[in-house]
Amino acid sequence: xxxxxxxxxxxxxxxxxxxxxxxxxxxxxxxxxxxxxxxxxxxxxxxxxxxxxxxxxxxxxxxxxxxxxxxxxxxxxxxxxxxxxxxxxxxxxxxxxxxxxxxxxxxxxx
Amino acid sequence: xxxxxxxxxxxxxxxxxxxxxxxxxxxxxxxxxxxxxxxxxxxxxxxxxxxxxxxxxxxxxxxxxxxxxxxxxxxxxxxxxxxxxxxxxxxxxxxxxxxxxxxxxxxxxxxxxxxxxxxxxxxxxxxxxxxxxxxxxxxxxxxxxxxxxxxxxxxxxxxxxxxxxxxxxxxxxxxxxxxxxxxxxxxxxxxxxxxxxxxxxxxxxxxxxxxxxxxxxxxxxxxxxxxxxxxxxxxxxxxxxxxxxxxx
Lengths: 110, 248
Hints:
The structure holds 2 protein chains of 2 kinds.
Chain A: H1 2-17, H2 28-49, H3 54-78, H4 81-108
Helix pairs in contact in A: 2-3, 2-4, 3-4
Chain B: H1 23-53, H2 62-118, E1 123-133, H3 141-153, E2 158-161, E3 164-166, E4 172-176, E5 178-181, E6 184-187, E7 190-195, H4 198-205, H5 211-217, E8 221-232
Antiparallel strand pairs in B: 1-7, 1-8, 2-3, 2-7, 4-5, 5-6
């Protein structure tokens, strides 16, 4: 509940303020967003499973974002930045899909 | 809930052993979750905005960028060639315009010079004013014509006889007392204005046996007044040539 409201508030804030992304953050922001989405979906699924834990959620959220950013950073340094970004997005996307499927089963029993 | 276990999901860890009743801890974690999701929403909005408003080139691959760059370079080359061609034609047009202007200026100058010589334009310059008295009414048109001829011979460029502008076709008649110049009666004393070198004109009129002597022999007097500037305001109109055509 809080999470949903905060998410909406954040989107509205972003739309109102319209900040420009600093250049150094540009390659990391999309990956970080996807990683955070993965954490959020995981949290939602855990909540529906009745096993949600705030600490786990917070830790997984932060670690997801940090690791994703680190991978991209490392990939940039190694010269495979775009490929690694793609890999991270694919992996996180698969996880999001898995979580979304679980959530769907919970909600629609199908 | 027979949900297949997802080992990758970090939030699957069952923390059922969480001690209940820790209200402050729950509040704090709720606030933390709120902040994190707020940040997520913010980041989503910012990223979407940056992606849609940023220029399309930023998202393109290197190969595509190289292709675009090549295209742009080729286009720039074409445009540069066009610029060069247009500049050349501009130069040509300016040259021809300059030539036309120079020709027009030359023609204008020529027309002016001819206008002075032919008497169609007023003239000003150094010259002489000749006064011929003829108390005995003995000077004929021919004598007066001699005066004009003498002036011409001495290089007079514009001559006015009485109120008449003298030119190539001017006629002189008269048998004494009154001269008829181009059909206009001019009574004595005659006043002739001529533009030319004053000294030369004076000398030409006063040579021994010249027109001054003729005037004196007829009982009159010919006086020459050298002036640094005389003005001939009278003009005449030229009839267009009836028979002669310009030929090259």
